[in-house]
Amino acid sequence: MNTVADAPRKGAFGDMNDWLNALVAHRVSAARSAATPMSAELAWIAENPGHTIYQRRSLFVVGVALAIIVGGMAATPGILPLALSLVGLYFYVDFYSGILHVVLDNPRFVRLPLIGIPCAEFQWHHALPYDISTRRLVHVFGDINALVLGKIVALVLLAGVTRMTVMVTAVGFFWAYVNQYAHRSAHQAAAKRPPFTRWLQRHGVLVTPAVHHEHHTTHDRSFPVLSGRSRHLVQGLLRLVPNQWVWLTVFGVLTVVDLVAFARFMTWLAPRLPH
After folding, report:
1. Closest to 272 in 3D by CA, of 69, 72, 84
2. What is the pLDDT of residue 3?
3. Residue 14, phi then psi, degrees to nearest 5
4. What is the pLDDT of residue 37?
5. CA of 62: how far to CAs of 18, 35, 52, 66, 144, in Å?
6. Run means of pLDDT, 10 residues per run, the chain, 275 residues
7. For the whole model, what pTM was predicted?
8. How far apart are CA 130 and CA 5, in angstroms?
């Protein structure tokens, strides 16, 4: 029977993705040997042994997104629209991260088409909560490649390519990557977090380890991971509307239209702003 002592050692691997995947295989093997009921993420990988949970994501997509962030902000149609977008999308991305977290945390969704694989991958973060802090940041950015590509397609098809659209896309992607960084930082030891990151956490700009730890105690609260400020709103909505399919539908709709709607709103608002 596999034991904790048999678990793969981190120092034996040059890439943390390989180490984490070895841990996944070890956990599944141990659960099989013990003949105990498996959690959703364990059962899914046991049934799909050919899938790699921790992957080296496409750095090309990350590079494209970073180029959009830099280019889109530099080409902003105005300082005030940029400032309003930065503030508005900062609060929205925290809220959206909470909705995404609620959906991807749902063990009942792991066998659904399209969303199932992301759910299975995401739920391994419950089994191995240190995964996000041990992987390279660029691969943590790459975990949202599918969302990035989907939002680019939606924006091009539904809003067109304008300076305002590109600027809103840039701001949205900026906060999405900050969200990934904030989540990763919340799992890092204090000594590994840069002083500026700790300062941002202390002042509530980024989610604190203590606030995020609330989620990992029961996995049913404190879902947002950018600042955590919208956690009470998300929790209240969960109590008001507990139906999981409503949350999945809302997540799908927002994923397609959120930046499109914000870009159209800013296009309408910009001419009305003081110059």
Report:
1. 84
2. 47
3. -85, -25
4. 84
5. 21, 41, 20, 6, 9
6. 66 93 93 84 89 93 98 95 98 98 95 93 94 96 96 95 96 98 97 97 97 95 98 98 98 97 96 88
7. 0.94
8. 18
- List the end-to-end C-alpha distance of the chain, in Å, as a whole number: 71
pLDDT of residue 275: 77
Res 160: pLDDT? 92
Q: What is the DSSP string of 95-119?
A: HHHHHHHHHHT-GGGTTSTTTHHHH
Do the beta carbons of residue 94 and residue 183 sit within 8 Å? Answer: no
Classify residue 158 by burial, with Cβ atoms within 10 Å: 0-12, 13-18, 19+.
middle
Measured distance CA(190)–CA(197) in Å, rounded: 10
The pLDDT score that the predictor gives to residue 105 is 95
SS3 assignment, position 207: coil
DSSP per-residue codes, 32-90: HHHTPPPPHHHHHHHH-TT--SS----HHHHHHHHHHHHHHHHT-S-HHHHHHHHHHHH
- Sequence-distant (6+) residues with CB within 8 A of 43 are none
**C-alpha–C-alpha distance, residues 185 and 133, integer Å:** 7
Which pLDDT does position 38 carry in this prediction?
85
Structure tokens at 174: 């900026």
Q: Scanning the structure block, which residue is given the tokens 């909705």?
A: 99
Please give the C-alpha separations between residue 183 and each of 12, 23, 162, 234, 261, in angstroms, as whole numbers.
Answer: 26, 21, 31, 17, 26
Q: What is the C-alpha separation between 55 and 75, in angstroms, rounded?
A: 33
